[in-house]
Amino acid sequence: MRWMRKIVIAVSAVVAVVGSFIGSGAAGGTPIAEAADGALSASSTAIAPGGPAFGIWSVIYVGLIAFAVWQFLPRTADRARHDRLAVPATLSLLLNAAWILSVQFGYLWLSEPIIVALLGVLAWAFVVLRRTRPSGRLEALITDGTFGLYLGWVCVATAANTAAVLTAAGFRGFGLGQDVWGVVVAAVAGLVGVLVAVTGRGRIAPTLSLGWGLAWVAIARLDGPLVSVPTAVTAVGATAVVVVVTLVARARAGWAARPAGLRTA
């Protein structure tokens, strides 16, 4: 049964990587930023990150392939942790590919429930990893690090995707303007980052990718056809808050893990 789990994850990882290859335009398809009439480009909405932000996918995909290989090593063959992670990990890989294909074929409306489901299964994976312990630093880097980066980035991607879908559907923000909505969404993304930092006891990886995404939102709003200084300032402020909360949560988790005698010394 465990061998079947390993094979399914490995195949799903290959599907996700092939999907990313198609989504990048390398296989002759349209790059994601240009697909669906440019609905996901850096100038489409006030919360869209700059193009270079998407380079983080390369790091995430390398991590996912490493995770797929890691589970085949003898030291991880009988680990209950990987058994519990198998379903959300597999679903995340398949949903990733499904999201790319939905955008590539112009079904932007379909991309929204897919990316929301992706965010949900990554939150599930995050809970599994938080409640179990890695065998060592290497597994923590490969497994916890990869899925942490994955979760943090998809938090930002979900916000950008939702804004793109609503804009493409003709939603004009009740007349409030791009600055107001940009500030609101950037602030909400920051609150999500704070929630992840607190519940994850200060895990670094989600903060890195979420901060990376928000930083590129700020950069995109300070240059180009869709300038919004309030959104840029809010994105930078949200990133700073998430970083501070992460460091505090991490310090508190480390303090709580110390023997009682040392805590009171």
UniProtKB/TrEMBL annotation:
Ordered alphabetically, the record's keywords are: Membrane, Transmembrane, Transmembrane helix
Q: Where is the protein found, in the record's own terms?
A: Membrane
**What is this entry's stated membrane topology?**
Multi-pass membrane protein
Instruction: Check the record and name the Pfam families matching this protein.
Output: TspO_MBR
Could you list the residue ranges forming a coiled coil in this record? none
Q: Which InterPro entries match?
A: TspO/MBR-related_sf, TspO_MBR
Q: Where are the transmembrane segments?
A: 54-73, 85-101, 107-129, 150-174, 180-198, 205-222, 228-249
Tell me, in one coarse class, where this protein mainly resides. membrane
Q: Does the keyword Lyase apply?
A: no
Keyword Transmembrane present in the record's keywords: the answer is yes
Family to which the UniProt record says this protein belongs: Belongs to the TspO/BZRP family.
- Official protein name in the record: Tryptophan-rich sensory protein
**Species this protein is from:** Curtobacterium herbarum
